[in-house]
Specification:
408 residues, six-stranded antiparallel beta barrel, elongated, alpha+beta, five-stranded mixed β-sheet, binds zinc ion
């Protein structure tokens, strides 16, 4: 088993070790050392990366991933194939920036989870650390925005107080009487406890800061209902600053587009939505008026044949909405009107309609025309609509149909 140096000092970024074994894992070279400061993925925290350099400086190996076996053996997976003899001395250097980021996220999670328990008795059931943000799942049925804000407030209060964070090792037996926030399943004899002075005590194998002030800041963002409760996304430390910077840039861009102050953006958007609704309503009203007027002049210009006024028209600059409206107006303004209309602005459309009670079947006529032009459509005896495939043949088809209907 590897000696886990990070158990005792999370700020140890360099160390010396001896190679125990070189093996292959998933096609990659992997080294086992007698001791390591490299943290393997576990408990929600992701692995460290870094370098291993042989003491004669002959090889500098990139550690791309670190995993831990069930027996506590830590595998340093290398970016490039390499094989070092057992007993080779190496100097390890972990990527300090990445480690510091992980310590901020993970320690911030302890503070945040404890805050949710203290304020609302909402235990954390899982923790996820991603490349951009972290999340905890809370065991609760409901989570209100005010609760999120209160937990964020308390968590940041604890950060500001810069409370010491201590590591303790106890037995399972001893742990039972300590009132831990979370007790791991009884597997190991020794438990590693992380204690935030006077605020939180929990068992954890991860890397943490020495004082809560090093977390920097805790920013809560999206919350969503998940199967086992509520998920809360958060970012800590430098990630919180980077995220706030990005949020600010996005918001200022939006404010710039609206020529408004940052905090006025939602009010501006609401105003625009209202204006849009009003404009849509006004244009619908105008369209109805145009249809009404067009219907009147079309009926006037159409001679009555065999007691019917058959209006045949293909509009190149109108759409389905307009010809439907026009068909309604035509057949309501006159008791013997037949409208055979097409619109080819956008998706080609056909609308056939007749005044109520006329001995005609618009649905049948539509099917007949679509049989020639292709496409689908249908409707009732009084009104039918369709989407023809061959729009270049619409004029001819409508003319033919018009003659047929007028001939009575
Ligand atoms: Zn932890």
């Amino acid at each position: 088993m590897t000696d886990h140096l990070y158990y005792h000092d999370s700020f140890l970024y360099e160390f010396d070790a001896v190679v125990g074994e070189t093996l292959t894992s998933d096609g990659r070279s992997a080294l086992v050392l007698d001791r390591t400061a490299f943290y393997p993925t576990s408990g929600g925290q992701v692995f460290d990366t870094g370098w291993l350099v042989t003491s004669d400086d002959a090889s500098k190996l990139r550690v791309a991933e670190v995993t831990e076996g069930d027996d506590g053996t830590i595998l340093h997976l290398l970016e490039n194939p390499a094989s070092l003899e057992k007993g080779t001395r190496v100097h390890g250097m972990i990527d300090a920036g990445r480690r510091r980021d992980h310590m901020q996220q993970h320690s911030g999670q302890h503070v945040l989870s404890a805050a949710f328990v203290r304020l609302f008795d909402m235990p954390t059931v899982s923790f996820h650390m991603g490349a951009d943000y972290c999340s905890i799942d809370l065991n609760t049925k409901n989570l209100a925005a005010e609760q999120v804000e209160a937990a964020e407030g308390l968590a940041n209060e604890v950060v500001t107080e810069n409370r010491p964070v201590a590591i303790r090792f106890v037995t399972q037996e001893e742990a039972r009487g300590l009132g831990l926030r979370k007790l791991p399943p009884a597997e190991r004899d020794q438990l590693r406890l992380i204690e935030i002075h006077d605020f939180d005590l929990t068992a954890c194998g991860g890397t943490h800061v020495q004082g809560t002030g090093q977390v920097g800041a805790i920013l809560l963002r999206k919350t969503e209902k998940v199967r086992q409760g509520w998920r809360v996304e958060f970012v800590c430390g430098k990630r919180a600053v980077a995220t706030a910077r990005r949020d600010y840039s996005t918001l200022s861009e939006a404010a710039g587009l609206l020529s408004s102050h940052l905090y006025e953006v939602p009010a501006q958007i609401r105003k625009m939505q209202e204006e849009q609704r009003a404009a849509r309503k006004a244009s619908e009203q105008l369209l109805a008026e145009i249809a009404e007027l067009s219907a009147g002049s079309l009926l006037n210009a159409t001679a009555e044949t065999a007691g019917r006024r058959v209006v045949v028209r293909n509009f190149a600059d109108r759409d389905l909405t307009f010809i439907k409206l026009l068909a309604q107006k035509l057949t309501r303004q006159n008791t013997n009107a037949v409208a055979l209309l097409a619109a080819t602005s956008g998706q080609p459309a056909l609308v056939f309609a007749c005044s109520a009670g006329m001995p005609l079947d618009m649905n049948a006529l539509m099917k007949e025309v679509l049989g020639k032009l292709g496409g689908r459509g249908g409707g009732s005896k009084d009104m039918a609509q369709g989407g023809p495939q061959q729009s270049d043949k619409i004029d001819a088809a409508l003319r033919e149909l018009g003659e047929q209907v007028s001939g009575g």
